[in-house]
Structures are given as structure tokens and as C-alpha cells.
């Protein structure tokens, strides 16, 4: 009986709970208010986006979501790129419910897989802001710098690789590399 309880407890802890509350992204290449408007319109066209607040001065966009929506970080990045710009910085505010994270380790949060880099081991509770470090979510220079925080193959591809098998991640599953 103790073994069954332990296995259930371990499985429950592997699928931690968290909810994306909002995203803030900074775009590069903007030169005028028309550029800002193009990104604002592109992001607003996503079905899960409730509201986009643009700050022209800083080229940032704060995005809130419709309740119960499935948020897709990659679709937001693609919308910015389709508008003719690049994401220079991407942060997500996530509500965590007792999620244990360790440096250079994977954790499944809801239906997403995250790989935490350059952090101290800790338990996350409440609203925390994480910064995405994947290719296309940071500058090329920063992406290269961040590659020094892990030797795992999944950082290069953004997908589960043999390095992820110990964490029960299926090959090809999207992994977001983040820091706090």
C-alpha cells in the first residue's frame, strides 16, 4: 500500500499545476506607431488573447488572456514575426501551486514542459515571472550565452530529446527553456 501511495504522489508531483496569467513581450525592429499597431493587431487576432496593451516607447506589449484559454507562446511569437518583426524578450507571469524546480531539470506544468536554467532549486508558489530563453524568444547573442547553462540537446531544438527520457517526456514534445 505504501508503494502505491508513493507512486501516486510521485506522478502527481510530476504534473504540477500552474496557470499563465499574462505575457509581456518586447519586439525589435519597430520604428513607428504603425509598426506597433501591426503587432497589436496580429496578437489581438489570436483566439486566446483578451487584450493587448502596447507601450510604443519601450516596444513592449502586455497581453492578457480569455479565461480558460489554452495559451500558445509559439503562436504569439509567430504572429510578431508574421507582422515583420522579432521578439527580443518574452516573459510570462504564471501562477504556481507548490511546484518544485531545480537547475537544469525539466518539469511538467499542466500540459507544458519547462526546462529551468540558471536558477537555484526552489518551490514556486503564487505568481512568478519566468523568462523564455528559446531561440526566437531572445536575441541570437543571448541565446548563445544561455546555451552555456545546459549540455542537454533539447535546448538547441526546443523539443524533447533523449536527454528528456528520464523525465518521461515523449520525443518531439515542445519544451520551453526558462529562467526566473
In short:
By secondary structure, the protein is an alpha+beta fold. The chain is built from 5 helices and 9 strands, in the order αββαββαββββααβ.
Written overview of the protein:
It is a single chain. With 180 residues, the chain is an alpha+beta fold. The chain has helices at residues 2-14, 33-44, 73-82, 140-146, 154-157, and strands at residues 15-16, 18-28, 49-55, 60-65, 86-101, 105-109, 112-116, 122-132, 175-179. The radius of gyration is 17 Å and the shape is globular. 26% of the residues lie in helices and 38% in strands. Strand 3 (49-55) and strand 4 form a beta hairpin. It starts with a helix and ends with a strand. It has 5 helices and 9 strands; from the N terminus they run H-E-E-H-E-E-H-E-E-E-E-H-H-E.
Throw out a few tags for this protein.
180 residues; disordered N terminus; 5 helices; Alpha-Beta Plaits
Shape: globular
Integer average pLDDT? 88
Estimated share of beta-strand residues: 35-45%
* Uncertain regions spanning at least 5 consecutive residues: 1-16
The fold-level CATH name is: Alpha-Beta Plaits
Please, how many helices?
Answer: 5
Beta-strand segment tally: 9
- Strand order in the sheet with the most strands: 1-6-7-9-8-5-2-4-3
Q: What is the element string, with H for helices and E for strands?
A: HEEHEEHEEEEHHE
Radius of gyration: 17 Å
- Give helix % range: 25-40%
> Strand count, sense and closure of the main sheet?
9 strands, mixed
What structural class do you assign from the helix and strand content? alpha+beta
Compute the number of structural domains. 1
